[in-house]
Design goal:
- The structure is a single chain.
- This protein is α/β, with parallel strands linked by helices.
- It has three domains: 138 residues, Nucleotidyltransferase, domain 5, CATH 3.30.420; 131 residues, Helix Hairpins (Orthogonal Bundle); 152 residues, no CATH class.
- The strands form two sheets. It has a seven-stranded mixed β-sheet, sandwiched between helices. It has a two-stranded antiparallel ribbon with strand order 8-9.
- A hairpin with a 5-residue loop joins strand 3 and strand 4.
- The longest helix has 34 residues.
- The radius of gyration is 30 Å and the shape is globular.
- It starts with 9 loop residues before the first strand and ends with a helix.
Length: 472
């Protein structure tokens, strides 16, 4: 290419394929910079040398781009034309399916590699659309790409259910926040006896009697409704407390429009809860068609397993370390000389994956004595930074997830060194917490606190550095 105006791109109508074919006899890489509307294409040799840059608008000029690719495929040796692009959300999916229909295989280049190589080839630390297309072509020529293949129909359907459930969950969380804010203003005593997030009978009550004044006017009807809605699981003390709080509330009196707002929120939350249950049941039925999803759902739960399978399918990785990296849980450090940087996770990939893994780790801390004992020995736990200790548990569980997806059974003895954990003391503490109130009130002998081994060499270097400065 010319030294001046290196990244100047023409329109797709100006591309003359016949003039480019002598330069692309050995093969051609069609590299795309994906955008919402304006795509940039770099035509390069199989060695990564770019011979043409052009633009096209999607979707009005997409078929003109496809005709250019078909002409290249007809003029170049069969099987010597390959497309390369970045997996940037859904913007490139329509163009990718057109390339596949035209018989052109598609290679995927990581956006992280494109970003990291912006100064590698021309010595200029800048990144724009034409340059991104050139970098994608060069990285594909270097073999730093992976072939794209269409996901199975089961995975596509499961991904749609996960997206729909996530949408319902976001809307539900917003409605819960609004409802809690209204209740605190008009009925602050309600939260002492019922929880709108955990008890569906609370939503049933607010749908029928949205204000404390209406509850105070019909105490018998409210009592009957709560007993039916809770199937007699709600205690008589809680029912009496709700009614007494409504009769003597200190909240701001509600106008009819505010009552309508509370009733609407409660009804929408009830409908969202039923919709979420229906989606979970659909996912549970799909587990019959996917063996890996069935294994993970029996251990992690339906929604958590569905997110894992659709976002970071364990089947596409050859090691647990690769899966850990795809989840964004691998560690990174930035240190120089005597300055010891803090070790953190990279947070690459889907944030939803880390969210469900975090909630799953909290659940495992409650259910597994071995996981809980190992968690309490982490440095973050002993230094009152329990968030870091939970992340350490997440990293461990991802490695177990890799083997469970391949037919293994979760075994804490394979994941943790149980000989170094005080499981007897942990199990005794758990049983003591679940015992009778009289037994729980009995004071327990304090257990010896173990000193955890260092898990971050950056912290160790920081201690050595601080000690040296103190001695100086």
């Amino acid at each position: 290419m010319k030294t001046k105006r290196t990244y100047q791109a023409s329109r797709v109508q100006q591309v003359q394929v016949a003039e480019l074919l002598p330069l692309l006899v050995a093969g051609c890489i069609v590299a795309l910079d994906v955008a919402k509307q304006r795509f940039v294409v770099a035509l390069a040799t199989m060695a990564g040398e770019v011979v043409k840059l052009f633009r096209f608008d999607h979707p009005t000029e997409t078929m003109a781009f496809v005709r250019v690719v078909e002409a290249l495929r007809a003029g170049v040796d069969e099987g010597k034309v390959v497309a390369a692009m970045e997996p940037t959300g859904t913007y490139g999916d329509a163009v990718r399916i057109q390339l596949m229909r035209a018989g052109v295989p598609v290679q995927m280049v990581s956006p992280k590699r494109t970003h990291d190589s912006q100064e590698l080839f021309d010595g200029v630390r800048s990144l724009h659309d034409p340059k991104s297309a050139v970098l994608v072509a060069k990285l594909c020529a270097m073999g730093l790409s992976t072939p794209w293949s269409a996901p199975p129909p089961t995975r596509v359907r499961l991904r749609a259910l996960v997206d729909l459930r996530q949408h319902e969950q976001r809307h539900e969380e917003m409605s819960f926040g609004r409802l809690e804010g209204v209740l605190v203003r008009h009925w602050p005593e309600f939260g002492q006896w019922m929880d709108v997030r955990e008890q569906r009978s609370a939503l049933r009550l607010l749908s029928a009697y949205p204000s404390p004044a209406r509850v105070a006017q019909a105490p018998e009807e409210v009592t009957l409704l709560l007993r039916r809605a809770s199937r007699s699981q709600l205690s008589a003390q809680a029912v009496a407390g709700v009614i007494a709080g409504a009769c003597a509330t200190v909240g701001v009196p509600m106008v009819p429009e505010e009552e309508q707002f509370v009733r609407t929120l409660a009804m929408q939350l009830s409908a969202a809860s039923q919709s979420t249950d229906a989606l979970d049941e659909q996912m549970r039925e799909m587990a019959k068609e996917d063996e890996v999803f069935a294994r993970l759902s029996s251990w992690m739960g339906v929604y958590t397993a569905a997110v894992i399978v659709t976002r970071v399918d364990p089947r596409q990785y050859t090691s647990a370390r690769q899966l850990e990296k795809a989840c964004g849980l691998n560690l990174r450090e930035k240190s120089s000389g005597e300055k010891a940087g803090r070790i953190t996770i990279t947070k690459r990939g889907s944030g939803l994956v880390r969210q469900v893994l975090y909630l799953f780790a909290l659940r495992m801390l409650k259910e597994s004595a071995a996981v809980r004992a190992w968690y309490k020995r982490r440095r973050g736990y002993t230094e009152e930074s329990k968030q870091r200790a939970v992340v350490a548990v997440m990293r461990k569980l991802v490695r177990a997830l890799f083997h469970v997806a391949r037919g293994g059974v979760f075994d804490a003895s394979k994941l943790f060194d149980l000989r170094r954990l005080e499981l007897e003391a942990e199990q005794a503490a758990t049983q003591g917490a679940a015992a009778t109130p009289e037994a729980a009130a009995t004071p327990k002998a304090p257990t010896a606190r173990t000193t955890p081994r260092p898990i971050a060499r950056g912290r160790k270097r920081a201690r050595v550095s601080s000690a040296a400065h103190a001695s100086a």
